[in-house]
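Reviewer 2 asked us to include a model.

Predict the structure of this chain.
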Amino acid sequence: MISLYGPGFIGRNFYHMYEPEVDIINKNDRNPKSDDILYTISTVDNYNVHDKITLDVDTNLHVLCEVLDHCRSEDITFNFLSSWFVYGKGTLPAREDAHCDPQGFYSITKLCAENLIKSFAQTTGMKYRILRLCNVMGPNDPKASRKKNAIQWMINELKADRDVSLYDNGSHTRDIMHVDDVCRAIKLVMDKGDINSTYNIGSGRPTSVGEIITLAEHYTRTRGRVLNMEPPEFHNNVQTQNFWMDTSKLKLLGFTQHITNEFLVKDLCIT
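Predicted model (structure tokens):
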């Protein structure tokens, strides 16, 4: 059985896909129910510093340490969902062994969490895997907003016939994958991935924001307009303009992406 911490957007989809094998851990519980752990608890963007400066540290590090305190066993494998944000503005495509230079509180705490897990594993004998996720999209993400999963939020706006604004005419690129494919990749790494290793979870190719929005315009037949705007300074400081990951390690495990970007956008537009 898999002990699942944090049934948010990704955790909830993972649970629905593999329900017979998954136990959801209560929000206030720190004790795992099995030796195979999937940890998905996290804040979701770099903007909390403006409103509550401690939120990223409290959620991404403090809660993590409370859970780790119950994982002092060589029998436990701790599978941690990290983020592409840890790479920062480095060489592309980003490899798992690349130097990480995260920008922004969220990004920094995700890399700090990775390092805490590695150090804890060295101290206690606990095993781990780090899974660095791409931009994950799919229906029914309740937290999609301008700040978190902005591409999906813009699609929702177009569905409602509202205008959206793209930074630099949508030229920025991201590594994007449907949540179902992401969950399949997570399960594959948990089943076959090397212990005490890091894996990129993504499509392994760049997709422009403009390409996704053009597909959304087609499928929504929106009356909303797609406008252009310059990115604000804070966005430029904490976000890279272009990003995609090297997913060679994931493919060596046998992973193939099932859902195309066109089907992903269509799924979002009709749901």
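The mean pLDDT is 94. The chain has one domain: 2-270. We have added this to the supplementary material.
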